[in-house]
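Milestone M4 deliverable, item 7.
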Amino acid sequence: MADAKKVTFEQLLAESEETVKPVIAGDTVDGKVLTVKKHEILIDLGAQGVGLVPRREASFSRNLEVGTEVTASVIDPEMEDGYVLLSLRKAVKDKGWDEILAKLDAAEIVEVTPFDANRGGLLVEYEGIRGFLPVSQLSAEHYPRVGSSDKDEILQRLNSLVGKPISVRILDANKKDNKLIFSEKEAIKDGLAERFAELNIGDVVKGVVTGVVDFGVFVNVDGIEGLIHISEISWERVNNPSDYVKAGDTIEAKIIAIDKERLSLSMKQLVEDPWVSEVENLKKGSKVEGTVTRITPFGAFVQISPAVEALVHVSELGEGSDVDPEKIFTLNERKTFKVLDVDKEGRKISLTIAK
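Output delivered:
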């Protein structure tokens, strides 16, 4: 009888050893929360013992409650006090990377909420992994279009996006390098393609000014970025685009060109060209009053009406190559000139000094 009991005990021991697999560093284990303290969290691993999540991860796991089922990574299978040292963060990250790589392969649109910003873009966290949304990958609605020297304003506009959810696609993910890059442009490109297909050159569209720079105005047209070049803002000479519009203004503009990513727009083509009417009565040989607005080595530009600027070429100022327009004209002076030619097709008026 004793021999039978001995055999049974050995069998039970063998079965137990097969059932209770020893934990190894790097393993992923499942368990239930036993206690949650300020400095540590204890996890019931069943026959594999009790796991300890240290203080440095307590804040990361602050939402855990007793009885919650968790997945953790083994850092040290046997500490001096007999506990198994665990990491919840590593387990969450490992699981997060699996989710991220699956969504990258599927080109799935996900939602992220930036928690910080720098001049290069927005810092986000997704599935427990920190990532980056570069400025260059923001949509027309969110891109901080400002002057190249306004670095503080760029950061200010990016900071305004912190805490606000943004739909994105994963652009690049590399677990080994801990690299995770998002793109808002990629998330909206399908919808933009449909909108582009509905637009035609000559259409008048409404949009919101997203930025004013030295060379023109950026406009968000229903998610599509448009640019009004400085030469298309007004029929009159424009020195500073910010004199005409400011960020946040809603404006109308005419589409003058369409490419794959941007619309070229015009404000001035929505109104009649005043140049045409102002040169109507200008005739060759007639005399006009004008103000010198610019002096260059090849001549002087003269404003003869609000929309008409004419040129007095250096060849009209004397013979020889040593003629210096700056010695003949003074900036902002008014003089009487004679019209030499009116080229309406080329929009050019040639003058000479009246005698």
